[in-house]
Amino acid sequence: APILLVFARLLQGLSVGGEYGTSATYLSEMATKERRGFYSSFQYVTLISGQLIALAVLIVLQNFLTTEELYAWGWRIPFAIGALCAVVALYLRRGMEETESFTKKEKAKESAMRTLMRHPKELMTVVGLTMGGTLAFYTYTTYMQKYLVNTVGMSISDSTTISAATLFLFMCLQPIVGGLSDKIGRRPILIAFGILGTLFTVPILTTLHTVTTWWGAFFLI
To answer: What pTM did the predictor assign?
Structure first.
């Protein structure tokens, strides 16, 4: 079972990693310049909705299975559901058309590595922004559920409910902020995100130690 779990997690990570960048690129290329932020935001909408579905499955399993059953064989159920969804995604992928931007670039016959080397500053900027955004996202979503249980001392059911509620709020905010970036530009949004995330993440995690209600934790997160 441990080997099977490790293999499933590796396969899951490779699949998400491969799809993460390509889906973001596809959405940005298919969008018009005036609405690029809005349409690109749906990459995170779909990502968060996937996490919400996973949490919904977890809540159902927690209510119908004992802790022993969940750890013994119940954990296999979400992976089985994910495998079926992967087959559907593969089928949909095969029917998708390439964007006009990609088709033009493909005709240029320039290697991806050469393109990256010609823009070192832009490359490092994208890497830095991606690192910061990914760290913040997984801190407040995936890691937060474990933090509430292992560090704050909340029950698994309460932490799952809080995570589901915060994820739903995050999902609803994505198109709003994406549309706002089309109006005022990406730079102000990114600067605000960087400053607020740097200044408030540690105080929020520290303050969560003193929270005794689920709505208090939800408000902080």
So the answer is: 0.72
Mean pLDDT, the chain, integer: 82
Other Cβ atoms within 10 Å of 29 Cβ, number: 17
C-alpha closest to that of 129 among 199, 177, 194? 194
Work out the angle at residue 162's Cα, subtended by the Cα atoms of residues 153 and 38, and round it to the nearest 5 degrees.
140
Query: Can you spell out the DSSP letters for 141-195?
Result: THHHHHHIIIII---HHHHHHHHHHHHHHHHHHHHHHHHHHHHH-HHHHHHHHHH
CB atoms within 10 A of CB 114: 8
What DSSP string describes 28-40?
Answer: HHHS-GGGHHHHH
Mean per-residue pLDDT, 81-110: 73
User: What's the CA gap between 146 and 143, in Å, rounded?
Assistant: 5
CA 217 to chain centre: 20
Alpha-carbon gap, residue 195 to 189, rounded angstroms: 10
Q: What residue type is assigned to position 199 of the chain?
A: L
Look at residue 95 and give its three-state secondary structure.
Answer: coil
Task: Give the alpha-carbon dihedral of 62, 64, 70, 74, to 10 degrees.
Answer: -120
Tens of pLDDT, residues 41-56:
888 888 888 888 888 8
